[in-house]
Amino acid sequence: MDTHARTTIEIRPSEPLAVEFTSSWHYEGNTLIDEFSTVESIANWIVVYRDRLGMPPSGPLSVDHSDAERLVEAREAVRELLDSVVDASRPGAAALRLINKEAHRIHAATLVWTPNGPHLRWPPGASTTDQLVSQVCASTVRVLGSPRRNLLRRCPAPRCVLFFSALRTGQMWCSQSCGNRARVARHSARSQ
Fold first, then answer.
1. pLDDT in tens, 154-164
2. 3-state SS assignment for residue 97
3. φ, ψ for residue 50, nearest 5 deg
4. Which of 32, 65, 98, 150 has the greatest number of C-beta atoms within 10 Å?
5. Terminus-to-terminus CA distance in the chain, angstroms?
6. Cβ partners under 8 Å of residue 78, min gap 6
7. What is the dihedral of CA 144, 84, 105, 164, to 10 degrees?
8. What would the pLDDT profile of 11-51 be if each residue is shown by its tens digit?
9. Does the model's pTM come out above 0.70?
10. Could you give the CA distance from residue 128 to residue 106 in angstroms, rounded to a whole number?
11. What is the pLDDT of residues 46-98, one digit of tens each?
12. Burial, 58: exposed, middle or buried (Cβ in 10 Å; 0-12, 13-18, 19+)?
């Protein structure tokens, strides 16, 4: 896998957190980017999504190299479940177990309201990665357990590995740039 350390996070606010989490692995041009390949890129991803994760706007984040493996494992499980919905297939039992186990941890958090607004308070010992994975897996359960799952698509554009919610009638791609790239590829193929 070819990765680099540039910040390439593109927030899609209308997408569920689970879908955005899978987007931490994406292409930029011909380069495959893994936002969880280094401790710095993990921390950057968390800072960008801090509000959507129910975390306070500031405060310490604790991530280390062992967190990367756990995040990638969770991302693969979420992708497997999203793939299964899009492909109308059955996911593996291990992916389902992981999602359900991690989603259940969300019940340990309580909603608090501080001068900075609402956020989740986790019990002592809950790591930053515990919070992130729990929130993402809970989002996966909510999306796949609701009619919103019928809107999920895998972008068919060349070099795109993203999922998206088809919120507009006839929406075929995750973004305008993917639509343009697909049209250019079709035109190029016809011209040859």
1. 999 888 899 99
2. helix
3. -50, -45
4. 98
5. 30
6. 18, 21, 22, 99, 136, 137, 140
7. -60
8. 788 899 999 999 999 888 788 899 999 999 999 999 999 98
9. yes
10. 13
11. 999 998 998 887 878 889 888 999 999 999 999 999 999 999 999 999 999 99
12. exposed
Tell me the one-letter amino acid at 168.
Answer: R
Is the distance from CB of 114 to CB of 56 less than 8 angstroms? yes
Residues in contact with 37: Cβ distance below 8 Å, sequence separation at least 6, in sequence order: 3, 5, 68
**Tokens standing for residue 91:** 């996911």
CA–CA dist 61, 72 (Å, integer): 18
- Do residues 20 and 12 touch, judged by C-beta distance below 8 A? yes
pLDDT at 188: 66
Tokens standing for 49? 């999504």
Give the whole-angstrom CA distance, residue 176 versus residue 192: 25
Task: Quote the CA–CA distance of 152 and 19 in Å, as a whole number.
Answer: 9
- Provide the residue type at 92 as one letter: G
State the CB neighbour count (10 A cutoff) for residue 38: 15
Question: Tokens 């895998």 appear where?
Answer: 154
Six-digit token pair at 187? 């035109």
> Are 76 and 83 within 8 A, CB to CB?
no
Tokens 């979420």, residue located:
78
Length of the chain (residues): 192
